[in-house]
Design brief:
This protein is an alpha+beta fold. The protein has one domain. The chain contains three helices and two strands. A two-stranded antiparallel ribbon has the order 1-2. Strand 1 and strand 2 (about 45-50) form a beta hairpin. The mean pLDDT is about 85.
Length: about 70
């Protein structure tokens, strides 16, 4: 699902991590379960999304979040 969203929003920077190999990351962000999508806002605030739902739902969440660094969401 995230691969599809990444193709539809190529200007949105994305990265993936295997928490089995990076337990400190899970602890730092207090990740409660996987999958977990972290949205980092321009002010440094992080929002966690655990339920992705559908591609259109995820696109809407990303477009409405202020993770676009001041740019207008496509």
């Amino acid at each position: 699902m995230l691969e599809i969203v990444g193709e539809m929003l190529p200007e949105l920077p994305m990265a993936a991590a295997n928490l089995n190999l990076m337990p400190d990351l899970a602890q730092t962000f207090r990740i409660e379960s996987v999958p977990c999508l972290l949205l980092k806002h321009p002010d440094g605030h992080v929002t966690k999304i655990y339920r992705f739902g559908s591609v259109p739902e995820l696109l809407e969440r990303l477009r409405s979040a202020d993770v676009w660094r001041g740019k207008q969401a496509p």
